[in-house]
From TrEMBL:
Ranges for domain Peptidase M24: 156-372
Source organism of the structure: Microbacterium saperdae
UniProt xrefs under InterPro entries: Creatin/AminoP/Spt16_N (IPR029149), Creatinase/aminopeptidase-like (IPR036005), Creatinase_N (IPR000587), Pept_M24 (IPR000994), Peptidase_M24B (IPR050659)
Coiled coil: none
Lineage summary: Bacteria, Bacillati, Actinomycetota, Actinomycetes, Micrococcales
Name recorded for this polypeptide: Xaa-Pro aminopeptidase
Amino acid sequence: MTDFDQRLTPAFFDRVQARVRERMAEEGFDAFLTDHPEDIAYLTGFFHHPSERPVAIWLDLTGRVVMLLPELEREYAESQSARAELVAFFEYPGVVPPFAVLADVVGRRCRVGFASTMSHQRLSAVRAAMADTEFIGSDLVTRARYVKFPEEIVLHREAARITDRMLDAGVQLVTDAVAAGGELPTEAELERHVTSAGTGLMYAEHRNVVVASLLAGGLVYSGANSAFPHGLPSVNRLKAGDTFMLSLGCAVGGRFIEGERTFVLGEPTHDQRRYHDTIRAAQQVGRDTIRAGLECREANRLCLDVIRDAGLGAFIRHRQGHGIGLGMHEAPWLEDGDATLLAAGMVVSNEPGIYVPGHAGYRISDSMLVTADGAEALTTFPRALDDCTIAL
């Protein structure tokens, strides 16, 4: 996969902006405003570190796309070939407030949608600058991001390939330590190793690496620590008999993938095998049932019922999964409260888990590309316990 270019073309962003305008017209908006960093990257290709200085995108139905940004970010946006007209303010809070600078450029509009993720402080500043404009909250861009364009799917596939290689690297570090007969790695050492493996592959094999919020990495935890679903890596050292989890992922061109496996160090006990086999069975049901036209909440029920039917429902701590794209976690949600219909071109996680306090957690996750008649697991690392057992 050498010479893989992560940067998307200007024509891609033109199609993205056209999709959003179509939805704006359908919902009766003259223009739309968003300051969400992921929306900005989606609409223009500009990735940045958000701060108190606002960066925002204004789209209107005439075809105009304006990016409001601080002057100190202008050259950085130009270096990324941001697909927008750049309008800069000098500093924040500024003698002239940033959104007043935007208002002077875009003029008056009657009905403007704004991203529902915008903070109250930002929205108040916008309304003060455009007092005669009606602003209406909308998740229009979020919904536009659900179904991926073909170029995005290429990026997701490459991120999945690298995530699988990160899992390989984690297992190799542990097996090498076992073979050497010395100390096993700590969770933190293992996390640093797999992160280095992921970023190293990108910089060795890719051009125009897009630096996203998390380029590569994840959660690594063992024993009782893994009973915390999102526990952070610690200095605890792996030891014989441990269950340990590698919850890894990366972003290629800003498009995320996650892949998670649960391992056992040494011969599994009866309980370890029961827990792992149950999660594998639930995850397999998810792989078999996710498809276009299925409600997210029904996908969640079908998957988690396997755990409940096995008598382990008391150990469920979370939903089946979530959408993946420019965010590692984004809508839609494979959860009881989300009736969104899955559609071909969505990418979602399939990650049932159980968490036994004082013992360990068990979770298997693949990133799934939804198709018309099913779903494809983009991550392919083996899932069975026999393949996830490290002999001592």
